[in-house]
Amino acid sequence: MDAAWMTTIVTWLTMSIRMSIPLLFPSLGGLISQKAGVYNFGLEGMMLCGAYFGYFGSYITGNPWIGLLLGVVSGGLLGLLLAFTSIHLRVSQLVTGLGIGVFSLGITGYLYRLIGIGTATTAATLFTSVDFGRLGSLPVIGEIFLSHSWMVYAGFVLVILIAWFFFHTTPGLNFRAVGENPQVADTAGVNVVTNRYLAVVVSGILASLGGAFLTLTQTAYFTENISAGRGWIAISAIVLGKFNPWGVLLACLLFGAADAAQMQIQVMNLGIPYQFLLMTPYILAMLAMVGFVGKVRSPAAMGKPYIKH
Is 243 left (phi over 0), alpha (psi -120 to 50) or beta? Predict the structure, then answer.
């Protein structure tokens, strides 16, 4: 194989992994929420707040860990808002989720304008790549798999932990029962409200991690609407992954590969309009949502407020 093509393929695979992570965190968050019966339409807004407050905290203090903490808190609070309105007040989950998205888009743009826009002095401090020593210098393997920040590896570890929790623990079984038949779960002594609250708050935290990944590992800057619809693609990834953590991981890698491919093709200057290339991940998302992968069974009680009888 020509050396130039080999370099291109290695770069594409490396970028594919990196581009999948901003989708993986909110997808796992949305999966947890939906497994418990609550549809989180606020993933996009939670990502935006995670991106902004992650950037802001790192920019102000010079410490990306503080930025990450602020981002996580913002996502958790938005998750708590969604939980309170949809579980306690029984407001439409769709309306609340969309409201969170609109609010987040407005407040992050406004706050960013207060601290300056796009100047060299507004760069955040980024997380550095994990140092694997000599392993990181291995040809091909080192660049593809061992050249990322800790957040990339944390995303993959989360997939393992969530899959183990759902399918190999009693609390995970109870958790899924809340999303399938909350009346039966309640009769069996499972606290439906508590489980759903926890699910939605954790969902918000994970979504904000996806946003913080953008500003704390990739760009060092915040721009308005930096999430660029990734929260909605995350919902598609859950459907494409058939509500299974491993399937969600594969779906996110697919979307990440498509995103990385359009960037690579633009650089190669093949004469394809870049607007068409930018559409690729969204086309995949639309195909997933209209049933391209076949019939997908969602949790039976998803989106339905629980009323204790």
Answer: left
